[in-house]
Amino acid sequence: MSAAPTTETAPAPAAAARRPSLHGTFRLQWEPAQQAWVLLYPEGMVTLNDSAAAILRHCDGTRTLDMLIDDLQAAFGVDGIAPEVHAFVSHAIERGWLV
């Protein structure tokens, strides 16, 4: 007998224990000309939306993913953002922005 599929929003324990940090070839900075946070790298630049910038600004290698989510929820007075943060961090790791 197989188990019924579930729609789990919590990450695997290994993902939650990650301490994401910006890859050394990238630099996160405020760009006054664009009035936006940007991610700079040798070949170019990525303009970030406010949510992406807030997440990346918290990815300093000192916080686990769960701690990062708690900090963001407290800073912005929201709950339930874990699935979106997990998805973004996974995407950023795939893109090589985070390690």
Automatic annotation (TrEMBL):
UniProt key word Secreted: no
InterPro entries in UniProt: PQQD, PqqD_bac, PqqD_sf
Top-level taxon in the UniProt lineage: Bacteria
Coiled-coil residues: none
Region (Disordered): 1-20
Transmembrane segments: none
Keywords attached to this entry: PQQ biosynthesis
Biased composition (Low complexity): 1-17
Keyword Hydrolase carried by entry: no
Pathway: Cofactor biosynthesis; pyrroloquinoline quinone biosynthesis
Quaternary structure, from the entry: Monomer. Interacts with PqqE.
NCBIfam families: PQQ_PqqD
Entry protein name: Pyrroloquinoline quinone biosynthesis protein PqqD
Taxonomic source organism: Cupriavidus malaysiensis
